[in-house]
Queue: 2 jobs
Job 1
Amino acid sequence: MDYRTVLTTCAYCGCGCSLYLEVLDGRVIHTFPCKTGPVNEGKLCVKGWNIHEFIHSPKRLTRPLLRQNGTLVEVSWDEALDFTARRLREIKEAHGSDSLAFLSSAKITNEENYLIQKFARAAVGTNNVDHCARL
Amino acid sequence: MSEKVRAKVKDLLDSGRIKGFLGLRQADGHLGPHLFTDGRELDALAVGDLKRPGDTRYPLNKQLLTLMRCDPDDSFGVLVRGCDERGLKTLITWNQVDPAKVVAVGIACPPELAAACECLKPYPDEFVDGGKVEGSTFASVATVDALDLHSRLTHWLHEFSKCVKCYGCRDICPMCFCKECSLEQEDLIHTGDLPPENPIFHLTRAVHMAGRCIDCGLCNEACPADIPLRTLYKKVAEIIAQEFDYRPGYVEPGEKPPLNILGEAPEH
């Protein structure tokens, strides 16, 4: 039996609540708020309390998939990125920068969010940037 | 305070009496729950408050239940304060813990924590460290009891109206071991509704905790809306003590809670 409590940060929104994940034999089974977390001081919302549930969800996208002839097919990161870059360039050239939009996420880091808006504005040339926290 | 606990746990682990010890570990600037399985990692074991009273109290008994269900053949040690020991005794009464498979290592709570908790007995029966502090009465209950009936109702309805229905009170509770929770029964609670029905949601839990709640107060500390749940459950405990002469965790393990006994109705 391998039992651990792992300190981490809630990924559901930008608050950054500290929590302990209870991990039993490699499976995350429960969540406890960290009482000395400076943001949440031992409290969590209903989403944070249940954050262990999405980790092993079969619905999670864990590998790059590319739709080929109507079916999602697993591809390498290189292939997925090459395809995405080519299509972004084609769409921009055919319809202009503002025909593209970028949707960012609360489940990634602040730095990654910075990068995606920087990419949208500086590389692609659009202010069409939004975020999944706009519920 | 950590030194004596560390020595005791080292003995238990080195002698093979226990397979692991659920305690608190100093890591990453926090003092959080950890299962120690090797005497050599005990340098990181620590006990005591970090910045304010109770900020390192965790539902170790709840984690113990998880361990014992996964590994029923081995024995485990667990760090207990007065409240945790009450919890352990009550879990034994409810047949959730095999007393032969648990070794409790007790610590007595410091005066600040005992006062903040309004704890009747802020120390376990046996403890390896800390000093015995006399218990206190439930001043928070007396304050609410002093209000007239209408003001008391207004007070509680206002407190309950703050609820965001996170279920944190249930999820942190070391006595919440039911496989099917009353708070998820459609017949009792409109499970999909927000805000929760006031006061049905909270009173359902308060009644369910009667004869079970061991007054650890973790629910109160976990509540993001600062609802004084502990005061509510202390009041429930007082009623149970008054009517049935029973306080969960203050009686010996095995003594059945009054609401589990079918018998004569109380006299009044």
Job 2
Amino acid sequence: MVGDGMDDLKDVILYHMRRDVMLSTLRKGTRYDGRPFDEYREIKIEYGPIKTAEGSAIAHIGNTKVLAAAKFEVVKPFADRPDEGVLTVNSEFLPTASAQFESGPPDENSIELARVVDRGIRSAESVDLKSFFIEEEKVLGLFLDIFVLDHAGNLFDAAALAAIACLKNTRMPKIEEGEIVRKEFTGPLKLKNYPVATTLAKIADYWLVDPSLDEDKVADSLITITTVEGHVCSMQKREGALTKEELLDCIDIAFKKGNKIRSILERD
Amino acid sequence: MKLIENGKRLDGRGLDELRPIRIEVGIISEADGSAYVEWGGNKILCGVYGPRECIPRHEANPYSAIIRVRYMMAPFASYEEHGRMGPTRRSIELSKVIRNVFENLIVKERFPNTQIDIYLDVLQAEGGTRTASITAAAAALINAGIPMRDVVAGIAVGKADGHIIVDLGKEEDNFGESDMPLAISRKDKKLYLIQMDGLLTKEEIKEALEKAEKAVESIHAKQLEALERYYKEEKREFKW
């Protein structure tokens, strides 16, 4: 919205120019890149690009590319869940990927992204953490690292997709005498379901699916809704405010789009 | 763990019943605005400072105030272990989503080149600290005289033992099926905070939203009562 991250006149002018250009095409029923309101950019998933990790995937949504990689470690369980393994999601906004990103420890945007992806997977109970138990005081810790490789908008959906595709690609390590035997595996990680995140942006009166970077910058409202079949498993309003009716409409769209993306995950 | 029996919750509440809520404003003499919220076992202190000169200056915005929110859980705020001071990943995310609530409500273009700081300290926590914090911050901002487009209050709804419930306590949050914290404005009933985890169908979300809309009315009323009390009474005594 106006005022955020606009330090000088240039930013304010750019904001209004972007918005004017977008609105002129939205009023004609299409987006400035030619997409209908409810259409994603092209989605592609590459499985297993990182051989050193136990699982990996790169999700492409248009030019946005996000890499997720899974590594296992033997760790101590949490005191209140002694029979469960540990899932840790982290994200890195590499300065390599965008002029917007800076080096340094994860900022609030990167933390929010990791936590939203984490909540989707955790709420859906996609991974059976009980299967990570080794012996008393010893469980497997699954570290899921999300690296943004190219930020062309809608990082949340791309990150969530990379994460679940990565888990689909993950192999369980062989355990001997309570330790991981590297490069040896016992089979694929079992996944119960595929949580898929769908982000919607509102510009003036128009709700758009999969906002591009420019749409993201002028959005009045933004919400990310993660679904599995039949259930919503996570929501995060990220900008603006919604009416109850708008939220319920967004949920309908998230189910529709989520099911479509799930069919890509199931197909590959 | 059984959370609901015969339509009653662990603490004896009905499904749609709120915990007792007490709101006081103007309790920090040095702050430009302040509030204290007791909400069940939650105790939240909020201090608002500003609009004041933006430091560092290069972060100032010549068209608008910038809003900063620092939500922090005291190390002694839970029955479990001693927490650590300073920001955690959780508190960084919560500070961000709470800030976004007020960035969309404060008429910030009226105060160019300034910052408005909202400090939220959770002194005691028992489930629902973010929604109680938003309720406190809204009252403190009004107490500071900062213009806002609407009054907002937080309320969590969710699901436990198959029932949609209002104002989740700690056990319901930890062991229930779903938690959906919301912030709802008073006049236009818009949702300024929407988060959710666990599993809910669309119909359940609809029911939860309707219950939240109803329950939040009494919280808005308590905010306004607290402000009215503060400006009417000459001398007040405040007990922690």
